[in-house]
Specification:
There is one protein chain. By secondary structure, the protein is an alpha+beta fold. It has 3 domains: about 80 residues, Rossmann fold, CATH 3.40.50; about 140 residues, ATP-grasp fold, B domain (D-amino Acid Aminotransferase, Chain A, domain 1); about 60 residues, 2-Layer Sandwich (Dna Ligase, domain 1), CATH 3.30.1490. Helices cover about 35% and strands about 20% of the residues. Strands 8, 9, 10, 11, 12 and 13 form a 6-stranded antiparallel β-sheet that branches. It has a 4-stranded antiparallel β-sheet with strand order 4-7-5-6. Strand 12 and strand 13 form a beta hairpin.
């Protein structure tokens, strides 16, 4: 039925997003098995990586550090095992929100104003410069881990200390409050845009994975021409980072309709709450077909 050979589905791992990855990977594994693929679970936190030599191809369903940041991609490159998603460089850069911003700004793509925080930063000055509210986040974590929305003057230092528990690089970013959107990318093509409407203060871990009252609008409600333009820009943003195969690019809109690119995801979630499967379904691609198409895009280099 296919020429994928023996496939390792990598999920679990040892990042802060382990539980999400276990959810994603178990669903991916089940889909591949339903489609007749010789797929097997592989948790890098519980097995030696040299055991990957027994596999012909890898589906990466790891999230966060050690799975989305270029490290496992480097291992697979050295072993000559084609893998899903972006390569070493794009994975590492995409995991780093600060360096993503540097590249996007250099490429002329709009991003929210931001400042890097340190323990000795002038927090009052940064609050005044960026304005309130603002978001504080670790540069190299996903799933909204460690993020705080700062709404009151004087609260920035505490938000920095919370984010610094997760990463030495911490970003303060001006809040853009006209709506949050995401663009799934599959094989170089953008899928329909999703508008995300959480009932929580912002699209945090709880809203992403635990609640059932977060609203996802697809169609997203933007005019057809505007959506087409933003889909093209999202593909460009992904390619600026060196992204390939599949991924996701998130953006915000202000009250005047201006778009600001926020971050890229080079190993998107595949849970029942995840965004890429939602967009694929609207595009007429069922979950099992999506998983097989992602696997077919596995590559080296």
């Amino acid at each position: 039925m296919n020429n994928f050979g023996k496939v390792a589905v990598l999920f679990g791992g040892k990042s802060a997003e382990r539980e999400v990855s276990l959810n994603s990977g178990s669903r991916v594994l089940a889909a591949l098995l339903r489609q007749g693929v010789d797929a097997h679970a592989f948790d890098p936190a519980e097995r030696k990586l040299d055991e990957l030599a027994a596999y012909d191809r890898a589906f990466i369903a790891l999230h966060g550090r050690y799975g989305e940041d270029g490290t496992i991609q480097g291992v697979l490159e050295l072993m000559g095992i084609p893998y899903t998603g972006s390569g070493v460089m794009a994975s590492a850069v995409g995991m780093d929100k600060w360096r993503t911003k540097l590249l996007w700004r250099a490429a002329g793509l709009p991003i929210p104003e931001y400042a890097m925080l340190k323990a000795d930063s002038d927090f009052a000055d940064i609050e005044e410069e960026l304005g309130l509210p603002l978001f504080v986040k670790p540069a190299c974590e996903g799933s909204s881990i460690g993020i705080t929305k700062v709404k009151r003057s004087g609260d920035l230092r505490a938000a920095y200390l919370e984010a610094a528990k997760h990463d030495s690089l911490v970003i303060a970013e001006r809040a853009i409050l006209g709506g949050e959107y995401t663009v799934a990318i599959l094989g170089g093509e953008a899928l329909p845009i999703i508008k995300i409407e959480p009932v929580t203060e912002f699209y945090d871990y709880e809203a992403k994975y635990l609640r059932d009252d977060t609203a996802y609008r697809c169609p997203c409600g933007l005019p057809v021409e505007r959506e087409a333009e933003l889909r093209r820009q999202a593909v460009d943003a992904f390619h600026v980072l060196g992204g390939r195969g599949w991924g996701r690019v998130d953006f915000l809109m202000d009250e005047e309709g201006g778009a600001y690119f926020l971050e890229a995801n080079t190993s998107p979630g595949m849970t029942d709450h995840s965004l890429v499967p939602m967009a694929a379904r609207v595009a007429g691609i069922p979950y099992d077909e999506l998983v097989v198409r992602v696997l077919a895009l596995a590559a080296l280099g």
